[in-house]
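A.,

Following up on our hallway conversation. Structure tokens first:
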């Protein structure tokens, strides 16, 4: 017979709201966070003056060679165990058509700040609440990482630390043991409290007492408080949580190739345009009007959306030209198509005509 599992002695850890002092500038702070991100102060730096983008040269990129298209096709087919190589060896290319597909990307690097009341056992740490007013959440200096590098940092807010009696053990340092409900012993699980096993054999597990010392509290009837670690008091303070993150949006100009746009998400292209500054302006003068429209919309959306809950530190916008080549070929008297796209020469051939059933043993 297996011994029953011991019950947990973790008491409630959520402190009551009246446990925390009122700190000017931090009235919405709650334990465990959840108060949301704090709006930053208005930016003091002047907005940059927009500059007309230079007229780009002819961005047309010629189609890849037939040999390169065949190599990419062969690599693609060999990576699919259920594809036979017949179309690669015997297919005849009848047409190759190149399409210029533009991808516009806007990245906004933000700094967000939130606060939460935090507690830890009091072991003589400095207590500074009321010594002087606490600095505001956006007045505390923090060193950001390099632009567009994700990072998090937690800083204890000065002049918010105070000492309180532990709310879980009410300042006693110990709590009644939940395994034995404070008795220090419990009914023997071998003899069920009778003191005997079979017949008149005395239970060797409890020496015939019918009860055994509680292994959780070692017979004391109480356990050290998990919240204050037996210190009886807690030091409570406000933590400032800072997060640096990059918000990104892409727009891919629709082309007439027939290749699905989502296929282009994992490939790279030739960078045609790059602009990085505190706050960017929409791309102007770009030959594809849909890209210019997307730039205007996304720049506006980012600056409105993210400036409400974070501080924008840097924005970056790029335009890539992703090469897409549509290859038409004949195999066994029928016409088929595959696409070669991106700098990586990825291939998409959804109607590959020579598939077979295969199983994995």
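Then the amino acids I'd put at each of the 361 positions:
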């Amino acid at each position: 017979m297996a011994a029953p599992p011991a019950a947990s002695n973790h008491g409630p850890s959520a402190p009551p709201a009246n446990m925390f002092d009122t700190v000017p500038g931090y009235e919405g702070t709650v334990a465990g966070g959840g108060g949301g991100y704090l709006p930053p102060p208005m930016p003091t730096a002047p907005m940059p003056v927009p500059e007309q983008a230079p007229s780009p040269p002819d961005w047309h990129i010629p189609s890849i060679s037939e040999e390169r298209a065949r190599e990419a096709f062969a690599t693609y087919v060999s990576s699919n165990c259920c594809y036979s190589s017949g179309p690669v060896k015997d297919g005849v290319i009848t047409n190759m058509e190149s399409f210029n597909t533009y991808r516009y990307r806007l990245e906004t690097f933000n700094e967000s700040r939130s606060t939460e009341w935090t507690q830890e056992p009091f072991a003589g740490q400095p207590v500074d609440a009321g010594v002087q007013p606490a600095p505001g959440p956006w007045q505390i200096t923090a060193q950001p990482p390099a632009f567009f590098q994700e990072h998090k940092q937690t800083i204890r807010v000065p002049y918010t630390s105070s000492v309180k009696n532990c709310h879980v053990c009410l300042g006693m340092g110990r709590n009644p043991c939940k395994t034995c409900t404070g008795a220090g012993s419990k009914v023997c699980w071998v003899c069920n409290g009778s003191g005997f096993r079979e017949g008149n054999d005395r239970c060797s597990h409890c020496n015939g007492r019918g009860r055994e010392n509680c292994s959780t509290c070692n017979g004391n009837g109480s356990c050290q408080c998990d919240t204050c670690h037996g210190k009886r008091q807690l030091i409570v303070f406000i933590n400032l949580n800072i997060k640096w993150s990059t918000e990104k949006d892409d727009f891919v100009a629709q082309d007439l190739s027939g290749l699905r746009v989502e296929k282009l998400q994992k490939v790279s292209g030739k960078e045609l345009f790059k602009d990085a500054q505190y706050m960017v302006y929409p791309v102007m003068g770009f030959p594809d009007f849909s890209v210019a429209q997307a730039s205007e919309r996304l720049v506006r959306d980012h600056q409105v959306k993210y400036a409400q809950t974070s501080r924008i530190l840097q924005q970056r916008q790029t335009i890539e030209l992703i090469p897409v080549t549509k290859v038409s070929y004949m195999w066994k008297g029928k016409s088929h198509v595959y696409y070669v796209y991106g700098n990586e020469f990825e291939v998409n051939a959804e109607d590959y005509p020579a598939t077979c059933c295969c199983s994995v043993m």
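The chain has three helices and twelve strands. Curious whether your intuition agrees with the design.

B.
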